[in-house]
Design goal:
Number of helices: 15
Helix content: 25-40%
Largest sheet: 4 strands, mixed
CATH superfamily: Glycoside hydrolase 144 (GH144)
Structural class: alpha+beta
Mean pLDDT: 90
Strand order of the largest sheet: 1-2-12-13
Radius of gyration: 21 Å
Number of domains: 1
Low-confidence stretches: 1-60
CATH class: Mainly Alpha
Amino acid sequence: MPVNKRLICLLLWSLVGCAAPAAAPVGEATAVTPTTAVADNTTIYRLPTTDYRLPLTISPTPTPAPIADIIAHEMERSFAFFWEQANTDPHSPGFGLIRDRYPGSPGIASIAAVGFGLTAYPIGVEKGYITYQQGYDRANGTLDTLRHLERSEGFYYHFLDMQTGKRAWQSEVSSIDSAILLMGVLTVGEYFGGAVQAKAQELYAGVNWPWFLDPTRNMFHMAYRPGAGFSGHWDFYAEQIMLYVLAAGSDAYPTDDTPYYTFTRHHARFGAGDPFIHSWFGSIFTYQFSHAWIDFRDYTDRQGVNWFQNSVTASLAHVNFATVMEPKYATIGANAWGLTASDGPDGYNGLYGAPPSGFDNRAHVVDDTVPPAGAIGSIIFLPEQARQAMQHYDTFPRLKGPYGFVNAYNLSRDWFARDVIGIDKGIILLMLANDESGLVHQLVMQNQHILNGLERLSLRKE
């Protein structure tokens, strides 16, 4: 069943596994039910109006700072995570590897965090946080590390020991995390050029994309483990659009457009909103990650899909859901939206999301946990709503730490996360940079492999 396949995806984003909260209050995974499908095969989800409770009484909070100051601080501190929480020992086989999270899980890097971190370095140079030479040296050395790490047909293990560069936690070889890493690799290649670009090209050319395909279903697998083989399929829309573009754009090991047009595209709408292609759990990061690098706003595929507009509509559904839920919860509301995989009071939970979800709208979980990265990561889609959310988050002192906003909070449980997570700091920084100057988009959209991939998938400018 699709839900079992999608649960495999959770394991790729969790640290040691995603467990649903032990006692989630009135989870919207069961509170929202679909109507009869309408003629255009679009499902409409409506909310019941019963079982609402008043939010807890929350102490008055400070007046938020000007939004420009909040954005500037959050960008600088998010960058600092990638710069400071990296292995900086030039003699270490793990030089340049970046922690998956901080302060938790010391010594463990994730390749997705490295992908975001590599992309962060050009941002840091342009913002004046570091010099060009500092950024060049860090990027160049990191690519040297990547050239020598253990790989399977060019794909990397999800989690690594930061010092040795060896596989950690018996983690899987991950197709999507390798794709995130390679987006960062290509970004620094475009920015720094020269030796960095040559190494970036070498790493990208070494990826055997068809190896990760299931030829019986024309879908990419999610994971591979030596001795166990492949598991999971990218059979539903999620954050993997970058995977198809990278694979189609390869000169050495290209794929055709079949996998891109094979995964399930299920349309649904929330309330009176417009229909859109939604992800299985409705986690908002799934509508953001590919867009951090690839500027889809002017591109439409041969089925008429514009992924940028799809993410605009999905983000608006998150805002509308949170607004309707405001009387019920202490945290969630019009200025606290964007539910997504994150830490929660009972541990990391990959099921956090908002409707629509699954085929019957019962896939996602809501327990009043809100991650700031959810709304901020949609700033290029809903700029005003994202800024309002940032100003709201800024009024909670316990939501801020040495690297900006911490991972999540839940006022119903009086809980604020201890950690920041690399991929969440990454989507915050990259999307704020794209909103401010378009820097990451400009770099990536001049890469010929990305342009070739878009063309081969029949994603063409309108």
